[in-house]
Recover the amino acids of this structure.
């Protein structure tokens, strides 16, 4: 159980879970007015690079967590653009 | 320039920058009413674990980015509790 990868999985679960309420609020209300476009684009670029970095270091927790977060962010951005 | 660590530094800069507007808004207005306590606590736990994970893998970009983000989150949480 003292494999450091578990730290990564736990970290990934927490920081991804922290995103869910915001994402669900956008899906439910179909609007993302209180989300800044700049924030969404910056986060997508950053999370994508973390995904590439995780891949380059062979870190499965980073790949998994950042893939899920990237999907959530992409959907939030889509709502932001679609339902201005 | 094709050292993967640069991916990590770029990712860290972007995801940390994405945090700044929210943090500055809290510092300027001295209130964090639109920030959920659960979100702040979940993020702090997650970012702390990413910091530990980065340390366990000897990843300087992860250590640096998550340290800065952890400080910003800690200050946001302090404002959240202090100025309810």
């Amino acid at each position: 159980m003292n494999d450091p990868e578990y730290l990564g999985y736990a970290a990934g679960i927490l920081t991804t879970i922290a995103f869910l309420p915001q994402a669900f609020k956008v899906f439910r209300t179909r609007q993302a007015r209180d989300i800044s476009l700049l924030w969404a684009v910056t986060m997508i670029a950053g999370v994508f690079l973390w995904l590439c970095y995780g891949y380059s270091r062979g870190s499965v927790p980073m790949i998994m967590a950042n893939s899920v977060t990237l999907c959530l962010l992409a959907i939030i951005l889509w709502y932001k653009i679609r339902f201005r």
Notes: Residues 14 and 65 of chain A are 9 Å apart (CA to CA). The helical segments of chain A are 5-17, 20-29, 37-56, 60-82.
